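Suppose you are handed only two things: the residues of a chain and a line of SMILES describing zinc ion. What would the bound structure be? This form records exactly that question and the answer produced for it, so the two can be stored side by side and reused later without any lookup.

QUESTION INPUTS
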Amino acid sequence: MGRSFRVGSVKGVPIRIHWSFPLLVVLVILPTGAKTTTRSLAEGLIWIAALFICIVIHELSHSFVARRRGFAVRDIVLLPIGGVSEISGLPGAPADELAIAIAGPLASAALALPLALVGYATGAVMWPPTLFAGAIVSRLMWANLLLAGFNLLPAIPMDGGRVLRALLARRRDDLRATVLAVKIGRFIGLTMVLVGARYDLWLSVIGLFVFVGAGGERRAAAVRTAVGGLKVSDVMVHDPTTLEVSFPLSVVAPFLQASPGRVLPVVDRGRYVGLIAADRLTGPPRAVLVVDSTDRDAPPLAADDPLYPVAVECLVAHRRRAAAVLVDGRVVGVLYAPHLEAALRRATASLGISSIPR
Ligand SMILES: [Zn+2]
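ANSWER OUTPUT
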């Protein structure tokens, strides 16, 4: 998704800001008029900060529900058009997708209630709806209602579109449900582009995002169906050589250098620790033992993980060369990215798509 930088984390979910997010700051502060005063600037920044927190709460709701249902949450990225929760292994079962998708809009709607009460208690003008003038509490309430309502539009990849797909998938297979949801999503996206061109360009931008995103969903569903039951254990190299953490690096180095493509799992009394490869040998200057040059961030896979999307997200999306495959914490194989890509190419050859969406 391009460059983003981390601004913090909530309960282990990293919050990142996309480089284009400051665009929103500029766009929100600019309409306050030609004569920008310190006060209007301060108000603009408070407004942005409050909006930021509301969007983060919306995304965290998706993430927490996903995590409770066993999905791994990579991070939350904030874009000018809203937030995106990066969750591995979606869509999952229809019931999971439905619960995860609906959680965000529900949280936004729920946030509007205390804001309405505070507005009422402080005598703020809450009507007519506005986002650009008046009391912050009123603007924030309407922003949250807008966030809830807009996201519930049945246009995949927006939340409402995922809800729609999940509902359709109860009576159809994944691909048919997605194809139908994508048709509806594209229609709504195109409508947004056209209506936005007449009234508000921002709407066109979101419409374009929906239109393009819907196509990605369709390709992903096609790949999921084609790759079907393929699991990591079908493509991995079985029973690889493993290295103990305490093994001297000087003994291993020549072996690794002789086969640069090779990746070996490192274990501590049989338990997986990380990976080592020839390109790691130049790492820390005083590396003596295998553990000193081990890549401990290399995420492992489970033998029964599906090749798509789980293994693809683990390897291709993160540009990793290989992943250890575990059963109960013990290494049973290594999945290499080229083997994974070859398997995907074979399975999707008939689909006529040039790249595997992640
Ligand atoms: Zn959402």
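WHAT STANDS OUT: The radius of gyration is 24 Å. The first helix runs from residue 22 to 29.
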